[in-house]
Amino acid sequence: MKEIEIKAHAGDMEKMAAIIDSFSDSGRKAVKKHDLYFHRPGETLQALRIRHFADHLEVTAKKQFKDSVSEENQEYEFSASLDQAENLKAFFLCLGYEEYFVKEKTGFEWYFGPVHVELLKVNDLGVFLEMEYLLDFSSSKEDVEHAQKKLYHLLHLFGLDESDVEIKSYREMILGV
Predict the structure, then answer these.
(1) Where are the alpha helices (DSSP H) in 13-140?
(2) What is the pTM of this model?
């Protein structure tokens, strides 16, 4: 899938959650994610991720592209059982990857049609509003632009604007690169 995403500094968790709740028909759900990223020695981009949820693992290979409007990720994913965590880690290490960094996210999620919205405390970086729109790999430039417009519409609806958008990746913020 192609993921079109923006993230923005959101300030106070409860205040922003209440704003999002006021527009949501489905209500919020608690979220907790523990991500372990891997990369090849000498490379600065993360390539592989093992995400721990309460009841399963999600394994992702990522290709990331950024511009001044949004982040576009091509992601290839599959799920695994929790008891496979050490096997997956050993597999990545055997392929020549090394552990890169850990990202912890806790907060809430909502769905607004095709848009997945999360309000998350990320490591010690603060609270972020993350919004993503999923497209097929074959989607057109117009599809991407439509997704970006939808994301920015919600950003404004929730009381934030372009000055709140964070273009740096969490990797860049966590590692200071």
Answers:
(1) 13-23, 85-94
(2) 0.88
Q: In which band, very low, low, confident or very high, does the pLDDT at 121 lie, cut at 50, 70 and 90?
A: very high
Q: Quick check: 89 and 36 in contact, CB under 8 A? A: yes
CA torsion, points 29, 165, 77, 111, in degrees to nearest 10? 30
Q: What is the CA radius of gyration of the chain?
A: 16
Question: Which H or E run includes 101?
Answer: strand 98-112
pLDDT band at residue 68, thresholds of 50, 70 and 90? low
Residue 143 parent element (H or E) = helix 141-157
Q: What is the C-alpha end-to-end distance of the chain, expressed in Å?
A: 27
Over 90: is that where the pLDDT of 8 sits? yes
